[in-house]
Amino acid sequence: MVEQVRAATRMADSEIPLVVRDLHKSFKDVSVLNGLSLEAHEGDVITLIGASGSGKSTFLRCMNLLEVPDAGDIIVHGEPVAFKQHNKTREPASWKQVERIRSRLAMVFQGFNLWAHMSLIGNVIEAPIHVLGVPRRQARERGMALLERVGLADRADYFPAQLSGGQQQRGAIARALAVDPEVLLFDEPTSALDPELVGDVLAVMRELADEGRTMVVVTHEMDFARDVSSQVIYLHEGRIEEAGAPADVLKKPNSPRLQQFLAPRF
Ligand code: ADP
Ligand code: MG
User: Fold this and answer.
1) Atom 25, ligand 1: which residue's CA is nearest?
2) What region holds the ABC transporter domain (predicted)?
3) ipTM for the complex shown
């Protein structure tokens, strides 16, 4: 009976921005992801926490195909990523699809990763023009509005080297938004910043969460995780050790390992 009710209320994959099922990944003989799954529903903010080396970055990088998972499914609003075997290695079946998936799941990295040889606005309009085929004028208009949003309209023509880390990271967020992604992936977006610059970046991320953006965020910012997440996932050695609402996972952790992980952070 319970199962029937669940089945009746279960959403179709096509209604869910991002479904990841049973992802596995090894580097050489070392198994790094051991069956990871998540569902990011519309407006969800899922935070991934865990010790260094637990697989957080690899998990995100698999989602937008910077790494190819050895097994498992990635489904974006019902579109499954297709893989093929090539000389014993698994690779994406279509690079066209990889490009599309990367714009549907836009990623913001720890190290900002703006293109150094392009102005800030150049960075923001690059993918809309060259991947999505948006006319330059329209891309520029939209790009300027996004820079305005992240407080950088007056820096549009600066090059990355002329910007602070916080400004570069807010620029990287504008660039990610420019492709109109269904899900934003963040990999420790504030870890490389001087402490006084962290707040501005987190403020932009909180705004995005407030406006209902679907996000998957790797972070060590526990206040952010507590205030903003719909779900917190704690990874240990490429497995989900504990997951749930922040009030449970962060305040009443069951796993002794997670208790130990959180102790110095609260
Ligand atoms: P986290 O982001 O949680 O710190 P990572 O996903 O970066 O963890 O790394 C998980 C494990 O995978 C680590 O042991 C790391 O050394 C290993 N790893 C990550 N990327 C590679 C790679 N390209 N080649 C070999 N090992 C890797
Ligand atoms: Mg990492």
Assistant:
1) 27
2) 18-262
3) 0.98
Helices (H), 13-135: 56-63, 95-104, 120-130
E-strand ranges in the chain read: 18-27, 30-40, 45-50, 71-76, 79-80, 83-86, 89-92, 105-108, 183-187, 214-218, 231-236, 239-244
Q: For residues 91-125, b (16+ Cβ closer than 10 Å) or e, as one string? A: ebeeeebbbbbbbbbbbbbbebebeeeebbbbbbb
DSSP state of 14: G
Look up tokens 């066209």; give the residue. Answer: 96
Q: Give this prediction's pTM.
A: 0.94
Ligand 1: does its nearest atom lie under 6 Å from the Cβ of 57?
yes
CB 238 less than 6 A from any atom of ligand 1: no
List, in order of start, the domains of the chain with CATH numbers.
2-262 (3.40.50.300)
SS3 260: helix
* CA-52 nearest atom, ligand 1: 4
Backbone angles phi, psi at 142, to 5 degrees: -65, -40
Confidence (pLDDT) at 111: 87
User: What average pLDDT does the segment 153-178 reach?
Assistant: 96
